[in-house]
Amino acid sequence: MAATTVLNYLPRKSPVHALTGATKLAFFLLFTFASMVTYDTRVLLVLMVFSFAAFRLSRIRIREVRFMLVFMLVFLLLNNFFIYLFDPDQGTKIYGTRHVLLHIAGRYDVTSEQLFYMLNISLKYFVALPVAILFISATNPSEFAASLNKIGVPYRIGYAVSIALRYIPDIQRDYHNISQAQQARGVELGKKEKLVKRLKNSVSILLPLIMSSLARVDVISNAMELRGFGKHKKRTWYVERPFRKGDWIALGLGAALLAMSLIVTFWDGNRFYNPFV
Fold it and tell me: How far is the C-alpha of 59 from the C-alpha of 49, rounded, in Å?
């Protein structure tokens, strides 16, 4: 369905969903920082195992987040392509050796060092993306707003983020409905039409989509204003939950993974694991 093609909250009965929003936010930040600071392949492989294990525990099916996975793979390929295009010797500079596997043309050689460096870049994506998808797909938007407020973010900002996340499936549904209505009127948007023509026809969807979005924003803002939203400096949250045993275990695991990443990465004063020495 259209509503599952982009990130959206997917309710499940799983250990991941049972965690509080604050726990998932803290674990996401700890885990992301652990993967960002290191280029040690050994650390990245360990983090990837935990990332895939968490995704499996969530009981979210791959087809439900297929769009984001495909988008990541395309972005990853483009990223690696441009890394090689602009600096094909980046790996050589980092690892200090040069083992040429294939000469292409001019300064473009395929070296073991460059391939290994690009492998580490790819591993970072495979480490971070599953956890990022889980954080949004397994966290109720209202609970996410409560978790942001719990770590010190003003509740107005947290609530704005919550509304934005809730609005994603609404936009998808409106786009799908408007698209079906336009096709019923003879506006061709299918694969049979040429790409340029399909892009031009897509413009007929944007204006109704923008107008419906603005109308919804006006309704929500008026409703919040009538209820006195933002009058007080603090507020309570209906969906906020107390910490349980699983939350403390998840926080401890996130802190342990971050500590492991920092210790292994900087033990010898170098962020890069060098197998060529």
Answer: 16
In a 3-state reduction of DSSP, which class is residue 20?
coil
| Residues near 206 by beta carbon (within 8 Å), at least 6 away in sequence | none
Q: How far apart are CA 198 and CA 246, in angstroms?
A: 50
**What Å distances lie between residue 14 and 27, 55, 58, 161, 276, CA to CA?**
16, 10, 5, 24, 43
- pLDDT tens profile 224-247: 777 777 777 777 777 677 788 888
pLDDT digits (tens, 9 = 90+) for 97-119: 888 888 888 888 888 989 999 99
Cα separation of 81 and 85, whole Å? 6
Residue 154 tokens read as 């003003």
Q: Is 127 left (phi over 0), alpha (psi -120 to 50) or beta?
A: alpha
Residue with tokens 């990022």: 132
